[in-house]
Amino acid sequence: MTVAAKQSVVPALLVAWAFAAAPTLLWLVRSSVASDGRLLALGSALLVATGMMLRRADRGRSNAASISVTTAATSTSLFPFVLLLAGLAFALLVRRTIAFHSLEALGVGLATYGALGLVLSRAAFRRALPLALLLATVLPMGGHLETHLGFPLRAKTAELVASLLSQLGYAVATSETILVVENHAAQVDLPCSGMKSLWAGLLFFFGASVVHRVRVGIVWLATLAGFTFALVAANAVRVAALSILALVVKNPVLTETVHAPLGILAFLVAGLLAVATLRLLPAESARSVVGRPSPRKLPLFAAAVVFGLFALVPTRTIAKVETDLGFAYQPPASLSVTPEAMSAVEQSFLKAQGASYSGKWRFATPEGLTGSFLIVVARTWRAQHPPEQCLAGAGNAVAGVSTELLAADFPLRVVSFANQGARAMYWFESAESRTADYGARVFDGILAAGRGAAPAWAMISVLFDQPVNPHEGAVTAVARALSTSTAAQLKEISP
């Protein structure tokens, strides 16, 4: 195959890739700008570094071995093309099921790296892997991972900690990410998921691999797996230590004091071990050994076609995910209620996110408690959110959020305002289950979307006009009345 023939295919591949990656790139720019542009700047710098690194890697002894895509010595292996197909298949699965932009971006990035393997030498393709992974870690997905994917990690951590405490002789009860010892509860919350330390650790590992020019191979992959396991294990040990301090020693001040230092110490130990191991691994040679050019037109043309087909597949919109449930909430008779109109902005926002029903009421109890409650019903988790965000946006000074157990199967989140104490509480209810953990709600929605049968969930948020004790009888009665009536009405519309 002549160089001219290859030149005719490469532009088609670039155009097809641009159309396929355009939605992901636009989302990446919007997300990065929303983060003050720091991620965009870092990502751009890493992209430039990747290009410079690839150019140096493909400098051979002749002009035929240069980095130019028109004369590069391409790999005869099918692995890059398989990688391209796997990345786009993953992105397509995400696009048509959960529409999770961060994960779709990872799939498109993987496919892009595979496409590069069709125009680079084997040595340059292999050497680019750490930098490509380093670039992937700066995607604006840290918060998304903690909220959307951190729940199973937190649940497993809580399970391990409960097992450890049981071995030490303590009677431990667990509910999702909540640990209960002698009527004292502690939750493995978002900061304890370990996702932030895992993200920072991978960023550090890939950066160290680039700095030390480590040769990518089986040993490097094994080191990466060991480092990842060490980070997860270190976080589990940290959570166990904090749980013992909170539930057994019952010293909240000491628990809060050592929370951050324990995390930093665990990260430093794992990081030092990773660096020591990387320094022992063989380094790439300064000059790539590149064979004679053997460009192939067929894989490039096939890649262009695959990218083009991917670009034609639309994202599964929320409107298609959500259907009219025919739900109209009837408040419990035990509460004296008055409907409260929602603003047009609130209604349009919730509808755009896929809410099937939303309503707000003022309430009063025979004991004199007054306040308001909001119910949002939807199949998609995108229509619901942690209410403390809206409470803070409405001008309330949110001082803290804690998890309380009204019963073993009834957790709720209590929101405290500055200088006022507990003023709000919320939880999520379905026909069959109840949770106060937004991550659990999201994870259930992701799994259900994969099965194609998402159940309806209600977000129930209560704002009191006065500070309350969540375990006080009148407050508990409000929560139970709303929970019982909502679950019963959701059962009526369940398939």
Protein described:
This protein has 495 residues and is an alpha+beta fold. The chain has 16 helices and eleven strands. It is globular. The N and C termini lie far apart (59 Å). The strands form two sheets. Strands 4, 5, 6, 7, 8, 9, 10 and 11 form an eight-stranded antiparallel beta sheet that branches. Strands 1-2-3 form a three-stranded antiparallel beta sheet, with helices on one face. The N terminus is likely disordered. It is 55% helix and 15% strand.
Task: From the structure above, extract its key features.
495 residues; alpha+beta; eight-stranded antiparallel β-sheet; three-stranded antiparallel β-sheet; 16 helices
Oligomer class:
single chain
Q: Whole-number average pLDDT?
A: 77
| Structural category | alpha+beta
Are there runs of 5+ residues with pLDDT below 50, and where?
1-6, 60-76, 288-295
Q: What fraction, in percent, of the residue positions are helical?
A: 55-70%
Report the principal-axis shape: globular
**Roughly what fraction of the amino acids lie in strands?**
5-15%
Number of H/I helices: 16
Number of E-state strands:
11
Distance between the termini: 59 Å
